[in-house]
Amino acid sequence: MGEHTKNTVILHMLVTIATYTSIYEASLVKGMLENEGIPAFLKDELINQINPLYAIAIGGIKLLVDEQFKQQALQLIKETKKSGEMD
User: Fold this and answer.
1) Which of 1, 4, 12, 33 has the most CB atoms around it within 10 Å of its CB?
2) Inter-CA distances, 1 with 4, 5, 6, 7, Å
3) Lowest mean pLDDT across 1-5, 19-23, 24-28, 49-53
4) What kind and span of H or E run contains 52?
5) In sequence order, which residues have a C-beta less than 8 Å from that of residue 15 and are 6 or more positions away?
6) pLDDT higher than 90, residue 57
7) Given 3-state DSSP classes, what are the helix, strand and coil percentages for the chain, each rounded to the nearest 5?
8) Is the Cα dihedral 22, 27, 32, 36 positive or negative?
9) Measured between alpha carbons, how far is 80 from 86 in angstroms, rounded to an integer?
10) What does DSSP say about strands 40-43 and 61-66: parallel, antiparallel, or unpaired?
11) Do 42 and 34 meet the contact criterion of CB atoms below 8 Å apart?
């Protein structure tokens, strides 16, 4: 009989670490995190293109990262804001 291989499914818990009303700012922060090796995702970013008021109504554009990167991502955002690089 042949060997059976096990399929492993790894589920990642994504958490929202920030919300934005500007797609520009959300994309900028997402890119900064990805450049630091942190996978990041935007949720509800396309609604902003349809109607910016909808983005506000649904709570903005959400920036999500894997739960394991949450503290590192928040620290990077904090440091970047503190240094004025995101202004």
Assistant:
1) 33
2) 9, 12, 16, 18
3) 1-5
4) helix 52-57
5) 64, 65, 66, 67, 70
6) no
7) 50, 20, 30
8) positive
9) 6
10) antiparallel
11) no
